[in-house]
Amino acid sequence: MDGPTRMGAADRGEDFVDEGPRGFFGMIGSRIGKPRADAAPNLHTREALLLLQNYEESGRGWFWSTDAKGRLTYISDSVARLMGRTSEDLLGTCFTELFLPADTHGERQRTLPFLLTKQSQFDELPLRSAFEGDDRWWAISGRPQFDDGGKFAGYRGSGADVTAQRRSAEDASRLALYDSLTGLANRFNISKKLDSTLAAFAQQHRSCAIMLLDLDRFKQVNDTLGHPAGDALLKQVAERLLKIVGDKEMVSRLGGDEFQIILPDIEDRGKLGDMAADIINSLSQPYSVEGSRCIIGASVGVAIAPFDGQGSGDLVRNADLALYAAKGNGRGRFAFYSSDLHQAAEDRRALEDDLRDALARGEIALAYQPVVNAKSNMVTGVEALIRWTRSDRGAISPALFIPIAEEANLIWPLGEWVLKKACEDAASWPGDMRVAVNVSPIQFANPELPKVVAKALAASGLSPDRLELEITESVFLGDTAETNRMFKALKALGVRLALDDFGTGYSSLGYLQSAPFDKIKIDQSFVRGATEPGSRNSAIIAAIVALAEALDMETTAEGIESLDQLDLIRKLNVSHVQGYIYSKPVPNAELVEHSIAGSWTIKPSGPARQRNDRFSMFRKVTAIHDNHRYAVVIRNLSATGAFIEGILDVPIGTRFVIDFGEGQLVTATVRRSTKHQQGIEFEQTMVSDGNGGLCTRHRVSPYLIAAAAQQTSELALPAFTTTSDWKPA
Predict the structure, then answer these.
(1) Which candidate among 42, 149, 218, 438 keeps its CA 20 to 30 Å from the CA of 94?
(2) Is the Cβ–Cβ distance between 507 and 285 less than 8 Å?
(3) Mean pLDDT of 219-229
(4) Backbone torsions φ then ψ of 371, nearest 5 degrees
(5) Residue range 118-144: mean pLDDT, rounded
(6) Model confidence pLDDT, tens digit, residues 507-544
(7) Whose CA is closest to 280, among 563, 525, 21, 1?
(8) pLDDT band at 30 (very low <50, low <70, confident <90, very high)
(9) H or E segment to which residue 209 belongs
């Protein structure tokens, strides 16, 4: 064969005639049996060449050779075809051009060019095909060749397809580091990433936050729709998380319905709180899973290094404690870690133990909040609300102990007692005022519920139409046939049914066609902010009212606290109102007094407009002024200021640094002052801690505190002073 890149048989020192370009070994094999007249047949060579030809044609491997400049002088036809070329097309091509550069697939830089330049031997070097559409990996081996004078003459070598092995290894690696269901990093992967991040950031004095997420009501989806539906739901959860976080490598699924997020260089609790709220809101939106619509929720715990722990173990443990607090305070919340959560966790365990005996000790009682006709201001009914008062610590919030009761399987005996007691009390009221009782999804799922209701009605003698059972939308996540049977059994008793917290759960209009509700209760989340400019809540409320009227149902708006909210609710034709604007929950004795007087009409009373929440408290903090520290007590706290006492006759305009502990410092200015009490305004507003409280947006880093302590170690600060000792500078 003529040409600069083809060597003739004589040039190669062989005894066969070159009759055509059929591939190096194939050509030779096809000519065996046609030796030159003066050549003695070499049976051993002939057999070897036939074996090589067979090896090429089997597709298990291929051969190649180059000249001293790295240009192909031979390549097997089989591999050339796999690359979308012919051997003729590739001859004269630089061998390195057949493969992608090492840096495009994460291998060592310049591996193949380096080896060829150094004229080094190499074996099974993994390389990826450079030809478009050929996503294939090759293991390449090569030996440098030298002429009789020792001059480098090029390479001869072989190759083998290792695509399957490579993909298998990548799959194994992916399984070791990534969750097979969602594609997110797994527990092992994210743990290593957190360890390395925290180690590097500690040296650079940088912060790093983590979030732990736990899905609410996920088990209910698994139990009712099956595990395949649960898996499909988890995939959608992962997709929603990635949309918010952005960086796939920083989001992991730890297992089950638990997720973890790493957020480097973020310590602003305002931003973290906003992100946690966005996550909770996003994950709480409806899902479509295998033709079914379902609603879950999420709770989030947040911890920030170095404030809440410098090692991964401490940080994860504290984030988990914050998550536990968020779930314990009603779910669908976020919580930041603070040192007092350790005590709170202990208190919660103690509460669970005490709650088991609370009924027997007579600590459980009912209070009744009036439900008022929005036009006439006349009380038409009440809602029974459970109350727990412990002798050693006073009233316990239902938001705290109801989730404990659900987790500890105490909700059924508590619910049975509430039904019995509410019917008993209502039967003693003059007139025909109704009583509403909440029924949890756990109670609704129990087939014994109709018997319990019937027993409470029979024992009290209460007319069934005076009992209203409030049921949340989450009951529709269960088996449709069982749900319909339960509705039918309850309505057969003659009781009324109300759809509670409408718009926050399942939110499908389809079930309203068959579910026999008498009333829709509009959740207070729609009421709050409805009067603010730009809010769409009023349009949502109007739509709910129109829907209820079309279905011949009453409506009740919950949580009305200000006069502007009441005016809006009336304009939107909501039929009934419940909230502090009319009355807080009252004990049965007070309710009876009003009932005896005849019709109970309440004049609405409250602030003209909705205002920011203020928190009454008794919290000891430190006020710092000119290197002097004073113990003060916060009596009232809002996002923009506080009411403190403990320092005497402080001039208006005096500036303090208020130390809330754990690195929480805020600059404040005295705006009002009367003897030992001051009203102070914060220079920077505080932010929500996710659990109904407030915290500072930023904290002073432990690194800075340590540095400051070292610089001032020889400076003796004065001890705390009394109010009478304080003299303003």
Answers:
(1) 149
(2) no
(3) 81
(4) -110, 120
(5) 86
(6) 556 667 678 899 999 888 788 777 877 788 889 899 98
(7) 525
(8) very low
(9) strand 208-216
Beta strand 122-128 with 677-682 is: unpaired
- How high is the pLDDT of residue 194? 94
pLDDT by residue (tens digit) across 170-211? Answer: 766 666 788 889 989 999 999 999 999 999 998 888 999 999
SS3 391: coil
Q: Are 477 and 295 in contact (CB under 8 A)?
A: yes
Q: What is the mean pLDDT of residues 75-90?
A: 85
Question: Token digits for 489?
Answer: 């059994």
Asked whether the predicted pLDDT for residue 377 surpasses 90, the reply is yes
pLDDT above 70 coverage of the chain, percent = 84
Report the C-alpha gap between 545 and 551 in whole angstroms: 10
C-alpha distances out from residue 217 to 33, 233, 332, 347, Å: 80, 12, 10, 25
Quick one: which of 376, 576, 329 has its CA closest to 470? 576
DSSP 22: S
According to the 3-state scheme, what is the secondary structure of 32-65?
CCCCCCCCCCCHHHHHHHHHHHHHHHHCCCEEEE
Least confidently predicted of 53-62, 320-329, 343-352, 417-426: 53-62
- Ranges assigned E (strand) in 234-309: 251-255, 258-264, 287-289, 292-294, 297-305
Residue 562 in contact with residue 605, Cβ under 8 Å?
Answer: no
Average pLDDT over residues 391-418: 86
Tokens of 720: 């705390």
Tokens standing for residue 74: 């031979």
Asked whether the beta carbons of 385 and 368 are under 8 A apart, the reply is yes
Q: Which residue has the tokens 């294939």?
A: 136
H helices within 359-410, ranges in order? 398-407
Structure tokens at 491: 């309505």
Angle at alpha carbon of residue 304, lines to 299 and 310, rounded to 5°: 130
- Please answer whether residues 333 and 690 qualify as being in contact, where contact means their C-beta atoms are separated by less than 8 angstroms: yes
Find out whether 684 and 657 touch, Cβ atoms under 8 Å.
no
